[in-house]
Amino acid sequence: MSATNTGISDRALAIASRVEAFVRETVTPYEMDERRDHHGAPTDELVMEMREKARAAGVLTPHILDDGSHLNQRETAVVLIKSGLSPLGPLACNTMAPDEGNMYLLGKEGSPELKERFLKPMVEGRVRSAFFMTEPADEGGAGSDPSMMQTICRPDGNHWIISGRKTFITGAQGARVGIIMAKAEEGACMFLVDLPDPAIRIDHIPNTIDSSMPGGHATLTIDNLRVPADQMLGEAGEGFRYAQVRLSPARLSHCMRWLGACIRANEIATDYANRRHAFGKPLVDHEGVGFMLAENLIDIKQAELMIDWCASVLDTGSLGTAESSMAKVAVSEALMRIADRCVQVMGGTGVTDKTIVEQVFREVRAFRIYDGPTEVHKWSLAKKIKRDWKAQQG
Asked: Name one GO cellular component term (predicted).
């Protein structure tokens, strides 16, 4: 297999090209489809309709190959960026969060039995999944600090019993596969479970600023959930390690998808600025507008380079925790600037739902929070700076 001068294989570039064509031609017309839930997210009916078209087009779960292997992270980036050209693209192509991260984790750490039972239907795009880690802050539970986890699990014969509370669990409503983190005497554990289950009760799904993910971000109670011991992922006490296997590339995948969305938003704003006239000339000829679009190009390129650099680190086999933190901060902040400028360039039209620009603005604003807010990642990096300094002092 030959490679281009970018270092990305021809195979990956071809996949990315097919994904881009599918998203632009087939998915974007669905952006005005009214099949939405109470907070504006696409219904599962709409998602599955798009996925059938993606299956027919050969672009369903395009980053996972027919033999079950994954594209590497740099190749995944070129594909996921293209899937993100519409907020509906990752849903249609099955590259969305949290499923993409959950599939990556199971692909890396799941036993053959767990892969067959839980991973296969996810890769086939027939079910959605949820990752149960975050807990209510007002109850002292784990948020950005998973060591505060209060959800507990205890062995009971050939089963484990799980009890606790979780919050902001993306896609829990309607999911068929759950990955639950809980704390045992040995340390953190992860379990694969079938959903729904009567022992898992959804208490509340808030309306949130974002609206791209089916099922919302639920708060729920787990009440004496019985899970067979063979549905534990790996070994007891290894849950935090597995979480890092998932979270480092998952943060980067968010950057990829939302970069695609911001590229499209910038296309829309650029088209608007060239067509709309004010004070005797196109908006783009006014420096205040033209300079914003120029700044967008700079931020887009810097985001692309940061994503590629972090992906290269992950491809070396390193977890890349520090690198993914840097990418999450740099890219999410850059994308926020891009989305904000697009709204500003388009004026009143930019804050309406006539285009996806206002939604991209909302989604990227939420992205600065989930998978760790900017401040947590900076704090983590500052701790690393201190550790490295101490090590250098001998």
From this structure: cytoplasm
Q: Which amino acid is at 235?
A: E
Instruction: Locate 141 and state its tokens.
Output: 């539970």
Measured CA distances, 324 to 259, 265, 293, 314, 319 (Å): 15, 24, 27, 9, 9
Distance, CA of 215 to CA of 40 (rounded, Å): 10
What architecture is the 129-233 domain classified under in CATH?
A: Beta Barrel (2.40)
Asked which of 31-40, 124-133, 226-235, 292-301 is least confident by mean pLDDT, the reply is 31-40
- Tens-digit pLDDT profile for residues 14-65: 999 999 999 999 999 999 999 998 888 999 999 999 999 999 999 999 999 9
More confident residue, 68 or 389: 389
Cβ neighbors of 143 (< 8 A, separation 6 or more) are 134, 135, 137
Amino acid in position 374: T
Contact 158, 228 (CB under 8 A): yes
Residue carrying the six token digits 């959950």: 102
Four-residue CA torsion sign, 197, 104, 329, 345: negative
Q: Which part of the chain is CATH 2.40.110.10?
A: 129-233
| Contact (CB, 8 A) for 294 and 285 | no
Rounded Cα distance, 391 and 173, in Å: 47
Q: What is the largest CA-CA distance in the chain?
A: 79
**Whole-structure pTM value:** 0.94
CA of residue 360 relative to chain centroid, distance: 14
169: three-class secondary structure by DSSP = strand
**Domain 240-392, classified CATH 1.20.140.10, yes or no:** yes
